[in-house]
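All the exercises in this workshop are built on plain-text protein records. A record pairs a protein's sequence with a compact description of its fold. Backbone structure tokens are a discrete shorthand for how the chain folds in space. Once this layout is familiar, the rest of the handout is easier to follow. As an example, a complete record with its sequence and its structure tokens follows.
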Amino acid sequence: MVELWKKTLNWQPTNQQQNQFQQLYQLIIEANRNLNLTRITEPEEFWEKHLWDSLRGTAPKQEFIPVLHEDASVIDIGTGAGFPGVPISIIFPNTQITLLDSTRKKINFIDTILTNLSLNNAKTLVGRVEEIGQENQHRQSYDLAVIRAVGNVSACAEYSLPLVKKGGLAVIYRGSWTEEENQSLESAVKQLGGRVELIEEFTTPLTNSIRHCIYLRKVGNTPANFPRAVGIPTHKPL
């Protein structure tokens, strides 16, 4: 896949990074029998829908977000099997990545990944994002928040923007995208102290599936009442 990495991201993994990707795949396939981590188990599908997709979201217009080349702090909200956070931690060793999920079993599994892949720049956190977003050590503490395939888009904005520093960025990974979603997002983001910087549509390199990433810039402080209590952002979206 080296040529595809180069063509689509102007980047290619080192041998060590390729080995880590391979090891990650094997660990997930092995654990999947008991943990139901992913439906995606074929090697090429795994590469495209997990590895490539994770990294493409951090590269709007095929250029990696500049802060990732520095000592950025990143939070992956609802990381599940470790995407997009683990691939980000593999290719940006200077970043500090927090992998958040509410399911203890998944976090325990990710801890074994971090050990096996020697990823010293990543740590795990068990909790609900609505509660984490109200804690002083996490609120407005991250340069970048990434959130993939969790809830409706307004809820994703409410989960992510309270965690991001002023001037920082939240990235929401989506499949399809509609004008209706666009309108609800604009309203939500304004209330949360952000603005929509970019909505990018692109196609995946193997199956030509349409994907979207939404980039939200934090321009002001998030009011103290956001995120609202557990369950409210999804049931009563902004």
Summary: The chain has a mean pLDDT of 95. The beta strands are 73-77, 96-101, 122-126, 142-148, 164-174, 194-203, 210-218.
